[in-house]
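FORM 7B: Structural annotation worksheet

SECTION A. Query
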Amino acid sequence: MKTLQSTLLLFLFVPLIKPAPPAQQDSRIIYDYGTDNFEETLFSQDYEDKYLDGKRTKEKETVIPDEKSFQLQKEQSVTPPPPKKENDEMPTCLLCVCLSGSVYCEEVDIDAVPPLPKESAYLYARFNRIKKLTAKDFADIPNLRRLDFTGNLIEDIEDGTFSKLSLLEELTLAENQLLKLPVLPPKLTLFNAKYNKIKSRGIKANAFKKLHNLSFLYLDHNALESVPLNLPESLRVIHLQFNNITSITDDTFCKANDTSYIRDRIEEIRLEGNPIVLGKHPNSFICLKRLPVGSYI
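SECTION B. Predicted structure
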């Protein structure tokens, strides 16, 4: 009796049991690695699909060129490129640093001024082995406003070196081996030639006379025997300390025949370290608002 009941129950439940559906075969959906890996897998698969689709599309669009097109391509490939101009190669900017019109050639061991980009406005060539400056160095660089050659070995500068630099405002030649000064450009506001070997005979009588914008003149630590003549009215600072200056006259800074003349722009004159006794020349400073720095006794 019990066997019959079991058999009847089995026939009743069998229709309710359905076979499990087949497993998904899409390799792109993987849940076992967490959310991050799941998104990465989808991205990777999507990238591969797009890459393959694009590759197939490109292959479909590729056509075999006709004979005329092939000949044209061949002629174009054979045609040599136009020759490079010297300035196109910019050799200086490979050795130095060129940035917004400024060229920095500091401590790169050059022994001459390198070719400069035509748009150069500022050149810093400090602490190198440059021995000479020539007119050719800046002939095609008319926009230069500042030159700094501190700490080189410059012994000679051609007179025409700065003749075309009508915009040059600052020229620094400190710590070199100069014995004389070249002709200076007219718009200079600062000239620095301290720590050289310049003697008074190495400065022409009118070297500074026409420099109507010159405000700062640094000629200290040289071998000057006297103060340069015809210093412009525009000067504010004059450094002549540690030279061999032994005397000055009433016309050095003032005007001997004009007691009402006042030189009000000068803020500082330094003459210490020279063998001159300033107290012996009281009339030489009558036009100044401030006495020069130096020995008075």
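SECTION C. Observations
Confidence is low (pLDDT under 50) at residues 1-5, 12-65, 72-79, 81-89. Residues 68 and 74 are 10 Å apart (CA to CA).

SECTION D. Sign-off
Analyst initials: ____
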